[in-house]
Design brief:
Protein name: Putative ATPase/DNA-binding SARP family transcriptional activator
GO molecular function, one term: DNA binding
Shape: flat
Organism: Nonomuraea dietziae
Keywords: DNA-binding
CATH class of one domain: Mainly Alpha
Strand content: 5-15%
Distance between the termini: 38 Å
CATH superfamily of one domain: Winged helix-like DNA-binding domain superfamily/Winged helix DNA-binding domain
Family: Belongs to the AfsR/DnrI/RedD regulatory family.
Radius of gyration: 36 Å
Structural class: mainly alpha
């Protein structure tokens, strides 16, 4: 849905269809919400804006009706749009993602004045200008517009374009900056007398209206016009005009211009096609006297400079440059004349102090005082923008698929755009995976007309040892460090380190310590590697090196070296994937076993499952099968743990790790995992594995939590934390600290719980463990909820859910979404709470996740009870009680009993409700976890209802037989908590 207030109020769907909001009051309400641009507008303020001094009798109900009409109008135009209008204390907000005023500000911030001003269709909120609520928004937006118009005029004058400002000056006659721009525009148009008259008019008006004289800037401009100061003239340049927009280089242009202010010689370096020439020309446009010197087709740089300055020969170069003070020479394509160009540049800079040089070359000139500036490829967003600009027939999805193959190299993108028109997106993507681009671009030098020609140009300048190293280096997926290059590129009598440095100087390789090839150069190198018959042998070297690296890293991921080795494996992720793609069966199983814990720590569950499945297709392996089952469970899908464990023979260490990983992965899911945890703990102790012992203790503590054994929870979590600290594992410390925090939360010690979870979050963030960060954020969100900070709870759970979804971590995402449901219900947003909860119930049941199911059913039951639906509440809480009993958690049973008390009290069975409450309280006391004050909201509400009916909420607990009787009185199932029964 798109909203517009820069002119009369307009609303359109995404496809441009107008949306009609016919009722005037509803349209005014919409305008009011849009004027506040997503901020919450208090209900009392909206009432005042809509009805003024004569509000209706029940004003809040009337406002709710108008809100309903607005939502209905939006929903009728576009399904789901009703959710844009949100209720949030103390009023309402319209979350308009596409609002022209917001886009206007963003474009101004990016300096895109023409695009920003094109959004205006007339005065802001033109059809609501008389409404008091609109005054502040209109004033603010119109001031922004006027400033933007002044900025645009100043920009165009500086570029030498004519500007007409008379009408704008007539509307704002006292605005001195606007007056100054008008005077300058008149002067530059050859209308000096009119410019001077404009100053006289301004001086008279300021004196008559404000009793002031013109400011110093306006006065100085008047004096400059009188003496016809040359500084008033815009810059003059003979640089070639740009045929297309320069995309994605705004920051680069600013940085190069800043470098030229600091240094008299700046050299833009980079590979062919990266856009050095275009960037240099654009950066030079700010200089008043810039000249382009093209060196590609000459063998005499001095003669090329003379031609650019329109001199007959080179004898008067120094004199001419002195006379043209100040001058910027853009020396383009210096690489094939590097020494001669360097000598000429050094001489001219020494003899002409006002001269500056901006050079482009694949390697620096190596002149004293030179400032080399490597030109980077375009980032993915800018690359996609350039591709879509040059090939409008492509969709954003097409561009996203093509951009990864193009290296961010503007030449490659331009060539791809020309091919896209002939081949289409799919055929082009297929070709890019296997071939270099060969489409020609007219109007460019022959050496730049195809990407292959650009690289051939560089290849031909290399020595044979340089070619050997370059083609072998291409086997690396995303570059590598020196030791990996030496292993894969080695050859007798070749100094790999020295040759890498020379390739860096030639802009074929990025600078170290980690060297990279552009994808285009990599593809070229692989072709040369195949031609040389070396591809298979070099890939074997590559696989062997990275298998050894992964196996070296694996034990360090469970100790004090975690951070360093995670960073190492992060840097080598692409190479590790490439090694897996080409590894034979024995290496594949070794690699996935060594990388499994890394994938877990980084939350790469989908990647892990893909590579594990691929390894298993090459042949059976017990460790690989166990990891595959564990990652499947961690992803929130069922797996056969028993089948994986049955494959182990004569591998006690592998079996222990498999038992633990499977127990850890299926905690809270399916059958009891205590036997797996205990078996792993015993095996780890026999093996003397300190990390494994700590991990098993942590998992046993988590199981104790599920069964309501708070003493064992605290004991094992503390022992795990101590053990993880001893081995230096931060992941384990974060996990164990969270379990201790849960114990503190259950017992009402929120300060200690917050401290422990904050420390756990810090440890997870230090290591960059996205999934663990999600869990910790949700846990902190729970404490915020319990302490009444609902906004903080919502923020934390939202962040956690987003992280979990990015990692495809279903359990963590469910935990976060359940937190949002808990928060919504406690804020009275019952529809929102139910939506969150219903989304996960089937998933939990499919996994047989009993603890989670018990909580979700209890929460849905409370939603039904708060709506007054006693039958729906009774059914949901009975289901929740069954799930709680199956989970073995007494606290979950108590929660279900409290919910049943609420349902029965609604139905008028207050004596039974009182006894259910008493039973729940006794159940909690029995496990040392009485309900803290912060969690008594539901119980207090139900007790109040019972007390009002009976005079007291006190009662005797139910016996086991009586509880069984309550369970047998199940109401017919309901489809939703609205009370509608299934047929």
């Amino acid at each position: 849905m798109r909203f517009a207030i820069l002119g009369p109020l307009e609303v359109h769907t995404e496809d441009g269809t107008p949306v009609r909001v016919r009722e005037r009051k509803v349209r005014t309400l919409l305008a009011d919400l849009l004027a506040h641009e997503g901020q919450v507008v208090p209900a009392d303020r909206l009432i005042d804006d809509l009805w003024g001094d004569t509000p209706p009798t029940d004003a809040h109900a009337a406002l709710q009706t108008k809100i309903w009409h607005l939502r209905r109008a939006l929903e009728a135009a576009e399904p789901g749009a009703r959710d844009l209008v949100v209720s949030q204390a103390p009023g309402y907000a319209l979350r308009a993602v596409h609002l022209d005023a917001t886009r206007f500000r963003a474009l101004l911030g990016e300096g895109r004045l023409d695009e920003a001003l094109a959004l205006w269709r007339g005065p802001a909120l033109a059809d609501h200008a008389d409404e008091p609520f609109a005054a502040a928004a209109i004033t603010h937006l119109e001031e922004l517009r006027l400033t933007a118009l002044e900025d645009q005029a100043e920009q165009r004058l500086a570029q030498g374009h004519p500007v007409e400002l008379a009408a704008l000056v007539a509307q704002h006659p006292l605005r001195e900056r606007l007056r100054a721009l008008h005077m300058r525009a008149l002067y530059l148009a050859g209308r000096q007398s009119e410019a001077l008259d404009a100053f006289t008019q301004a001086r008279t008006l300021l004196a008559d209206e404000l009793g002031l004289d013109p400011g110093p800037e306006l006065t100085a401009l008047h004096e400059a016009i009188l003496r016809q100061d040359p500084a008033l003239q815009p810059p003059r340049s003979d640089l070639p005009a740009a045929l297309t927009d320069l995309v994605g280089r705004d920051d680069a242009v600013r940085e190069v211009r800043a470098a030229l202010e600091r240094s008299r010689l700046v050299t833009l370096t980079g590979p062919g096609g990266v856009g050095k020439t275009r960037l240099a020309i654009e950066a030079a446009r700010a200089h008043p006297n810039a000249h382009l010197v093209e060196l590609a087709d000459t063998d005499d740089p001095a003669q090329a400079v003379a031609q650019a300055l329109r001199l007959p020969d080179t004898t008067d170069l120094t004199t001419a440059l002195h006379a043209r003070h100040p001058t910027l020479l853009v020396l383009d394509n210096c690489e094939h004349l590097i020494e001669a160009t360097a000598d000429l540049g050094a001489t001219l800079l020494r003899r002409v102090p006002a001269l500056r040089i901006l050079a482009t070359s694949r390697e620096p000139l190596a002149v004293p005082g030179e400032h080399p500036w490597p030109v980077p490829p375009l980032d993915p967003a800018a690359a996609a923008e350039l591709l879509l600009t040059r090939a409008p027939s492509l969709t954003p999805g097409d561009a996203a698929a093509l951009v990864p193959h193009l290296d961010g190299i503007p030449l490659a993108i331009e060539l791809a755009a020309t091919r896209a028109r002939a081949l289409g997106a799919d055929a082009l993507a297929e070709r890019l995976q296997h071939h270099l681009l060969t489409a020609e671009q007219r109007g460019t030098p022959p050496r730049q007309r195809t990407l292959r020609a650009v690289i051939d140009w560089s290849w031909d300048l290399l020595t044979e040892p340089e070619r050997v190293v370059l083609r072998r280096f291409a086997v690396h997926a995303d570059g590598c460090a020196l030791d990996a290059a030496e292993h894969t590129c080695a050859e007798p009598h070749i100094d790999v380190a020295d040759i890498l440095a020379r390739l860096v100087d030639r802009s074929l390789l990025s600078p170290g310590p980690r060297h990279r090839l552009l994808q285009s150069v990599k593809a070229y190198g692989l072709e040369r590697l195949r031609e040389a018959g070396e591809l298979g042998a070099v890939r074997e070297r590559h696989t062997a090196y990275y298998t050894a690296l992964a196996e070296q890293a694996d034990p360090h991921l469970r100790g004090p070296g975690q951070r360093q080795w995670l960073a190492t494996l992060d840097a080598e992720s692409a190479n590790l994937r490439a090694a897996l793609d080409h590894a034979p069966a024995d290496h594949a199983h070794r690699l996935v076993d060594a990388l499994a814990w890394y994938w877990f720590l980084r939350g790469r569950l989908t990647e892990a499952r893909r590579h594990l499945a691929r390894a298993l297709r090459q042949g059976p392996n017990a460790r690989t099968a166990a990891w595959q089952a564990a990652f499947t469970l961690l992803s929130g899908e069922p797996a056969d743990a028993g089948a994986a464990l049955a494959l182990f023979h004569d591998d006690p260490a592998g079996l222990a790790r498999a038992q633990w990983s499977l127990a850890f992965a299926q905690r809270g899911i399916g059958d009891d995992t205590v036997h797996l945890t205990d078996a792993a703990l015993a095996a780890y102790r026999d093996l003397g594995d300190a990390w494994g012992t700590a991990a098993a203790l942590s998992t046993r503590a988590a199981k104790a939590l599920q069964s309501g054994d708070l003493l064992s929870l605290h004991r094992d979590a503390q022992a795990a934390l101590d053990a993880f600290r001893a081995v230096g594992d931060r992941w384990g410390q974060s996990r164990a600290a969270d379990l201790l925090a849960t114990h503190a939360e259950i017992t009402g010690d929120y300060a200690r719980a917050t401290a422990l979870r904050t420390e756990g979050l810090r440890l997870a963030e230090e290591l960059g463990l996205a999934s663990e960060i999600s869990w910790r954020l949700s846990s902190l969100g729970r404490i915020a909820l319990l302490t009444g900070d609902h906004d903080r709870s919502r923020e934390l759970h939202t962040r956690a859910g987003r992280l979990a979804a990015e990692q495809a971590n279903k359990p963590a995402e469910e935990f976060a979404q359940t937190g949002l449901a808990l928060t919504a219900r406690r804020q009275g947003h019952l529809d929102e709470a139910e939506t969150h909860l219903r989304a996960w119930l089937d998933w939990m049941r499919r996994l047989d996740a009993r603890p989670g199911s018990a909580l979700v059913l209890a929460e849905l039951g409370f939603v039904a009870e708060q709506r007054g639906d006693h039958a729906g509440a009774l059914d949901l809480h009975l289901q929740g009680l069954a799930a709680a009993r199956a989970s073995g958690d007494p606290r979950a049973v108590a929660l279900a009993l409290e919910g049943l008390a609420g349902a029965h009290s609604l139905a008028g069975r207050h004596d039974l409700a009182a006894r259910l409450l008493a039973t729940a309280a006794a159940t909690r006391r029995a496990v040392g976890a009485p309900l803290p004050a912060a969690e008594r909201g539901d119980v207090d509400r139900i007790e109040a209802r019972v007390r009002q009916a009976r005079g007291t909420a006190d009662a005797a607990p139910l016996t086991l037989e009586e509880i069984s009787g309550v369970e047998e009185h199940r109401s017919p199932p309901v489809t939703r908590s609205t009370g509608r029964r299934r047929p």
